[in-house]
Every structure is written in C-alpha cells, then in structure tokens.
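Hi W., the adenosine-5'-triphosphate complex you wanted:
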Amino acid sequence: MTIIAVFNQKGGVGKTTTSLNLTAALARKEMEPLAIDLDPQAHLSAISGTAVSIGDNSIFGFYKELKSLEELVQQTEAGYRVIPSHFELSKVDSLFGKGPKVINRLKTGIQAEMLDQGGPIVIDCCPMLGVLSLNAIFASSKVLVPISTDFLAVKGAMQLERSLKALEHVLKKRVERRYVITRFDSRRKLSWEIVEQLRDKFGDELCETRIAENVSLTESPAYNRDIFRHAPHSQGAKDYEFLLEELASSGFL
Ligand SMILES: Nc1ncnc2c1ncn2[C@@H]1O[C@H](COP(=O)(O)OP(=O)(O)OP(=O)(O)O)[C@@H](O)[C@H]1O
Ligand SMILES: [Mg+2]
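Structure:
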C-alpha cells in the first residue's frame, strides 16, 4: 500500500492539517489509513486525541527499541489509526546518531511488521530535513509537499526540490512527489502569481486542487477534530475531499 510523507522544511505551511485531513478523507472511504506523527511538536497527536504523556508510549518508544509500531497504534473515533509522537522524539539524533541504521529505522520497522500490506500510511513530518524527516522519506514511496501561498513560498519549494534531487542520488530512484497549494486566497494577487510560478517549475507535479484559506480549517484543531467531523460542508472539507480524489485518480495514492 502507499506510504506518503507530508513534508516541507518550511514551518506552518499546512503539513499537519494536510496529513490529518487526508487521513480522515481516506478513512471516510473505508481505506483504513494509518497516520504516523513524526514531529516532536506532536500536533497531529494532540488534534487527533492520541497524545501520550510518556515518551516511550509514542513513536519514540519504537526508536528506543522498546515497542513495536503495532503496539503504539491507537484507534480514533473518527475511524483512522494514529501512532502518536512526543517531544522526546527530538532526542533521536543525539541518542542514536545519523547513520544509515537510524535513517532506515522506520522503513525497516514498517516492512518487518508488514504495515505496508495494510491501508495507506500518511507520515506527518517536522519542518526540518533531519534524521526524522529522512526516516519518513526513506520509508515512503511518495512525498506530498504543502506550499502555502505566502512570500518566500516559491523559494522554499525550490530549496526542497534541490534537497529531494540530492536524496535521489542516495536512494538511486526518483522520489515521486506532488506539490499542493494551501491557504490559497483567491482575492490576493500574490496567490495567483505563486500558482503561476509553481506551475512553471513543477508542471504536472503541482496538484490542480488548491486548499483554500478556510476558517473551519483554522478552528477544527481547537475542537480536536478533523475537518469532516468539525465542518463537513465547509470549503476545507470539500478541498481535502477533492485532493484525495485527485491523488487517487492520478495514481499517486
Ligand atoms: N487552509 C487553511 N486555512 C486556514 N488555516 C489553515 C489552513 N491550513 C493550515 N491552517 C492553519 O495554519 C496553521 C499551521 O498549519 P499546520 O500546523 O498544518 O502547519 P505545519 O506545516 O504542520 O506546521 P509545522 O511546520 O509547525 O509542523 C495552523 O493553525 C492551521 O490550523
Ligand atoms: Mg505540523
């Protein structure tokens, strides 16, 4: 099954919002998705109601070789599963280094436990290309890059493209990727300029679906809900449903 890393080294661009709502959209299609929170900020864990108070009960316990991935899975009421994170996860590189064993740890674990034989896996990454995000990219076959339509968005996207190209030399294969525009405000000229620039640079790898700036998407985390449970008729819910349809019909998912 597909494993997708949701990554952009730029902060606050909608990685967690996209990971959570794409997972929720997959659950609505009864595809039994699993979200892995690989960000020590543990926002996805908090929003999905799966946060844990002890680091060992999070994905950090897996890196410490105390727990299997399966043991860490939590089922949510919304119908998807989550492996939560914890701020202790930020110690991974200082504790275990940056060698190939630790960088491939998530991939090895997923394969050994055959989690890749189940529903799709969505990995929410932190805003940094360090050991954790490399774990996500190495474990996944595909990378989904949210880009918010603000100043420096294109510069950040180009930086990321260069990083992915460098990684392809190590992986010896092309990292399949899609860029998705988030926080799109059609009233702003800058938003349209960014769309044009990204289309020029990324062509078909830029999703047609744009996630609009939507107040329900801003509010839903405060209620510990994904957009479909919080505001099923909102533009945000429609956009994430469209995004799933586009990713599925283009064979990315
Ligand atoms: N389309 C949207 N409309 C309105 N608000 C949004 C939208 N997408 C994200 N947000 C809000 O923007 C903020 C940042 O989003 P999010 O946490 O998903 O970004 P992130 O890339 O995961 O951040 P970080 O890099 O810190 O992990 C959050 O408050 C979120 O609710
Ligand atoms: Mg996040």
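Strands lie at 3-6, 34-37, 74-75, 81-83, 121-124, 142-148, 176-184, 206-212.

W.
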